């Protein structure tokens, strides 16, 4: 395991690179969700499982999260896409890399879908795990995980659970062309979603399934938003099988 640091607009983003002992290898970029970090159980379990199959991975904290610089209240989906772009630049600069895979959970799934839309020829395969594209619908309604606000006159700061989120985050969320940009990616996509997800309705993954030309929708029965311990093996195995299967 190697620590990775990259710069984006004066901020240092921190992550971890795990590489198998091979002359060349495929690599997966793993992205966490809203207010999460790179060391969540889903991402660490996936990184370990991929390494066993000889696949490298890099997972990092978005700006304002975990060990990366920045304030959470300055975070937006757009600057997380900018974060993803510099991580992608770093991965593309590595020697011995063959194919680049992409995995995003929750809001990280939205970011993954959009960066893949901007770089459709770069990513070999993409997995969206409980992708939170409903964040746009919620912002238009003035809702965020149980917190409500005026969607017409959005305050500068909004408190969501124990976190402070900037009003600019929600202004951007209302106008994101999520599916329009995502649709530019024409490679293989796996959509993983729990049918008991209380945070992001599985309709988000069903909409992605409609816009993608080459996607598979895998509904995990009984799984919540984070694919808790009992459901995690199914989600992890589905992801590993998808990335590692031969064409």
Number of domains: 1
Q: What class would the helix/strand composition place it in?
A: alpha/beta
State which percent range the strand residues make up. 25-35%
Helix and strand run: EEEHEHEHEHEEEEHHEHEH
DSSP strand tally: 12
Pfam families: Hydrolase_4
GO molecular function, one term: carboxylic ester hydrolase activity
InterPro entries: AB_hydrolase_Est10 (IPR053145), AB_hydrolase_fold (IPR029058), Hydrolase_4 (IPR022742)
Keywords: Hydrolase
Structural overview:
The two termini are 28 Å apart. It is built from 8 helices and 12 strands. By secondary structure, the chain is an alpha/beta fold. It has an 8-stranded mixed beta sheet, with helices on both faces. It has a two-stranded antiparallel sheet with strand order 7-8. The protein has a two-stranded antiparallel ribbon with strand order 9-10. The longest helix has 17 residues. The protein has one domain: Alpha/Beta hydrolase fold, catalytic domain (Rossmann fold, 3-Layer(aba) Sandwich). Helices cover 34% and strands 28% of the residues. One of its GO terms (molecular function) is carboxylic ester hydrolase activity. This is Alpha/beta fold hydrolase. InterPro entries: AB_hydrolase_Est10, AB_hydrolase_fold, Hydrolase_4. Pfam families: Hydrolase_4. Keywords: Hydrolase.
